Please model this.
Amino acid sequence: MGSLPLDASSLRPLDPEAFSGESRAVVNFLAEYYRDVDKYPVRAAELEPGLLRKVLPEAAPENGAPLEDVLEDVRREILPGLTHWQSPSFFAYFPMNASTAGFAGEMLSAGLNVVPFVWAASPAAAELECVVVDWMGKLLGLPQSLLFSGGGGGVLQGSTCEAVVCTLAAARDRALARLGHENIMRLVVYASDQTHVTFQKGARLVGIPPSNFRVIQTSAASGYGLTADAVRAAVDRDVARGLVPLYLCATVGTTGLGAVDPVRELGEEARRRGMWLHVDAAYAGSAAICPEFQDHLDGVELADSVSMNPHKWFLTNMDCCCLWVASPRALTSALSTDPEYLRNVGTGGGGTEEPAAVDYKDWQIPLSHRFRAIKLWVVLRRYGAVGLRAHIRQHVTAAKWFERAVTVDERFEVVVPRKFSLVCFRLWARFPEDDAVDDLNRELLAAVNESGQAFMTHFVVDGKFVIRLAVGGAMTEMKHVMDVWELLQGKAEEVLRRHQI
Amino acid sequence: MGSLPLDASSLRPLDPEAFSGESRAVVNFLAEYYRDVDKYPVRAAELEPGLLRKVLPEAAPENGAPLEDVLEDVRREILPGLTHWQSPSFFAYFPMNASTAGFAGEMLSAGLNVVPFVWAASPAAAELECVVVDWMGKLLGLPQSLLFSGGGGGVLQGSTCEAVVCTLAAARDRALARLGHENIMRLVVYASDQTHVTFQKGARLVGIPPSNFRVIQTSAASGYGLTADAVRAAVDRDVARGLVPLYLCATVGTTGLGAVDPVRELGEEARRRGMWLHVDAAYAGSAAICPEFQDHLDGVELADSVSMNPHKWFLTNMDCCCLWVASPRALTSALSTDPEYLRNVGTGGGGTEEPAAVDYKDWQIPLSHRFRAIKLWVVLRRYGAVGLRAHIRQHVTAAKWFERAVTVDERFEVVVPRKFSLVCFRLWARFPEDDAVDDLNRELLAAVNESGQAFMTHFVVDGKFVIRLAVGGAMTEMKHVMDVWELLQGKAEEVLRRHQI
Model:
């Protein structure tokens, strides 16, 4: 592990002894990190942009350094500049769970480093992916038609945006095969004003004209869910203008507010209009492993595709997004490749809706992806459905507690009723001027985040600035939610006092 | 670690003690795997598709199981069904390097599990990415104009296909901003018959009409490189028909044969026609850290974008693809998003070509990606440029040795002169009938792969079936290349004897 120039024979990059020793050192480093993670400010201090760039050398080192030196630099230069997503007091965005089992799966994925891009390039890896996506689908209560065992099937992608791009391309190519490519100008896609912004990005990526992206307004009356009536009206207008409704994105658990679009109503409307229905359950899909949340997916058998991210709230380290489709052929028609240099590794299937051997290169944007299946499989094996449901329910319970505390405190209000583990609230709703209330809440949020004791983010709905508390960290327990409520109350007092309110 | 149902309080998914213990068990498992990897058949036995699916339960387990049970299942059910990409005798496709340093970096990435999708969501992670892509660019001899330090910049994506999709979208949107979206039907993209198939997939994904995808023929005369004359002729034809040349993909080190497109000539042609030039150096880019290979990138200052994959031959576990662009703004114009719920984490930059703070969500398809920078950074720190050059050179030396052995043996011929570490050869070129020669080579390749002692793949060029030996595994040393040559000679004798030749 010296720092002298290495020749190739001394490099031995996978020498088992060196591998063991150095890997254990990293394990120790991370265990210490988890032990101390709540000692760091949750959100990175407001560093000056470019700070790390100034500290680090301008070029890669000529000579290698011992691992201890590298870890010391991580400790000294990098950790202070991170936002600690694994802190138990991280309540921002949505959670991004790490776990011991997810990490074990990551290690197996990275260590074996196989690439099941065609079935034969690692049959067990491709098959394990088929198995775990079916397992996950069953846990969520998805219909057989979305599982391999029922003629559909799934894939583990890296992100919802990729899932959206792939299914948009599938829908687009299905439509254009009928209409001719020049009709790409007539294709229209629909989402609500609460739909994740990556849907718009995905639609642009696949060449849908930006003018054909419909953002349909939602309101408090429907809990910010997209109504079938609103979709119908928008589609009618477009059809009257000679446009072609292509794709409707429904969200179960929106990013801003955790709102739920009514899947059955929207699915019926999509069927009537020949639109592809995608259900994005990136965050809330994890909750659907608990029967008490499966109603939110009622009507999902009408969907052409469904996605959810185990890397959010399902103890599965980044990255992992389950995508299920009712028609694998629609997906692979848009994404397949068949060059000569892949042809020698004979693949089965081909003509049937349930291919005997799945070539995942035709189910995703890239040719190859990491062995994500083993990660999700280890999580499922290690914790079991029972353990994972307990994980979800403890956060829902804590969020319920927080929602109630906010409701009871007359200085605060809950802005949108909580459905999962996200609580959207604000300070002192009865203050006369909305702008002033917004400013108070901005100050409150800044004060909380600057304290380093917790990190939350905000949203704006109906012009109101709202604070979001997303419960779901791997280490987050009831006590952390109680602590953050105490912190909020204290900071609220300070803010109100400062304004002599 | 018991198998009893867990409640949330006993799950403790990031308990430092449990994390340490279980992670060490996985490290031991992998060290043992590396110790024994050459005992497995390199390519997975020809299993019956669906075999693993039949062995595993149909649904996820209700109750968790101890880690030992999970690892035992990996050993028993999964390892036998894998193709062992880390075997020293894996010579198929291109290498997919794992290494102790790459693994350490993966562990840090997975363990910290931060998401630098906007700068402020983990400033040090975003900045480290800026630093390492600049380091890598300098190692490869890229011009300042492609680095952050010179007004360009880079990102670590997951795959070349993603890099191609993003740059195609950037080129498309730049053109359509001028022409109007309806002119998407007039946009034409160019590649050679040796270009990786994911380019065609990428072009389809971004909505380029399939009829506007030009595959330009190459030949032995140019070493299967794309000539500027051929591009010019194709572009002239298209322009005469009122079409708009959009994007030209040049490859340095093609997948089939390791051919090199002349970047300077193609760059000049692209400039004249206002086309985006992308240089795909996925595999051979790693070699360019050695000065003796940098000539293959001559003219790269004319490129709008360049990509290479450290996850291939650069000791960086899957996945990691460096993408550099000359104009970050062209990229981010096509890929940016700016929703309210990301707005509170104030970002700098914005108007300038070198933003103070880089929001990587606007540089890629997904909103967020893993902390890949720390992985590549650990590889660079741990091995240094000296160690990495030695890694590359030992494989080039071994490939040279193999090429010479093939040349000297009159039963074989080298089909295309070797440029890097890929040797393309075949058995007994002077056999009269081409079909018969192809059959002999097919038999030879099958015999080698079925032996389990090595794994190679094939290619077809000018109608000839060619065997590819891609040297570059993390454990592959000269002795393994000598062994595979001995194996090939033995199997060739058997094949020839069987045919009484």
Q: What stands out?
A: Residues 100 and 385 of chain B are 16 Å apart (CA to CA). Confidence is low (pLDDT under 50) at residues 1-5, 343-355 of chain B. Chain B has 16 helices and eleven strands.
